[in-house]
Amino acid sequence: MTPLLRQVxxxxxxxxxxxxxxxxxxxxxxxxxxxxxxxxxxxxxAGLGFLIETGRMCTPERDEFVLLxxxxxxxxxxxxxxxxxxxxMTPSSVQGPFHSPAxxxxxxxxxxxxxxxxxxxxxxxxxxxxxxxxxxxxxxxVELWQASDAGLYDSQDEAQExxxxxxxxxxxxxxxxxxxxxxxSSYPVPTDGTAGRLxxxxxxxxxxxxxxxxxxxxxxxxxxxxxxxxxGDPYLGSDAAFAVKEELIREARPRTGGWGMDGPxxxxxxxxxxxxxxxxxxxxxxxxxx
Length: 290
Ligand code: BEZ
Ligand code: FE
Description:
The chain starts with a helix and ends in a 16-residue tail after the last strand. It is of the alpha/beta class. The mean pLDDT is about 95. The strands form 3 sheets. Strands 1, 4, 10, 11 and 12 form a 5-stranded mixed beta sheet that branches. Strands 3-2-7-8-9 form a 5-stranded mixed beta sheet, with no helix packed on it. The chain is globular and about 70 Å long. It is built from 7 helices and 12 strands. The structure holds benzoic acid and fe (iii) ion. Fe (iii) ion binds next to strand 7.
């Protein structure tokens, strides 16, 4: 440890031990970074300027810092350390910036009501929500959001009404859910800000593989935010947000007939296994909150 680092760390001593721990680690890693990289003063000023510009871009509708965290794999790293669990659970994945409350819909409803419905490949998405032992979770809430075949969410596309390609479903007595939609496409994350500039500078593309976002909740179980990715997508191995997990990839199988569909469509099956919440220590099972 350098004398300077020792001196800086000696001044950390606030009332909250967790803040002290986090700030100590942050300062230590940043000093190690400077020792390793030995930035020129111009480089350091440019780096600070990049962060200042990132902050200035942030609005209630757009958070460039979150995008930067996503693009550096940091959001996925934080997701990983917070969602360990038993074998067989459905893994979590990042929420991304395009979540907004979805309209409640009936099982089997279409969630696609914009112009994409006339041009894209129709799809039926279905599955079962259970616990990790396969016990169905009747009444589980399954919230969905996805981009269109043009790679745009309703909030980015004037041709879509708010709530298009979104839906909140209630699983039936057997934990089953299903809905009708269109096949999503791979799409680029916003590249008109500092995160996009960084991607370009380090020679990375901005693409995310085609996916649907899920948020699944059931009383007594850990809420799950995740994605289902479509097998065969060319960006599965290089997702700009580093959110792909093998267990979340599903085939979209070509089908004709069934599920109330008129012509050809694709079927995507995705079962979700939630982790039971542990009761707090010392609380008998009968006193658990639902
Ligand atoms: C998304 O899938 O919506 C997303 C996730 C991370 C960064 C940008 C977009
Ligand atoms: Fe997305």
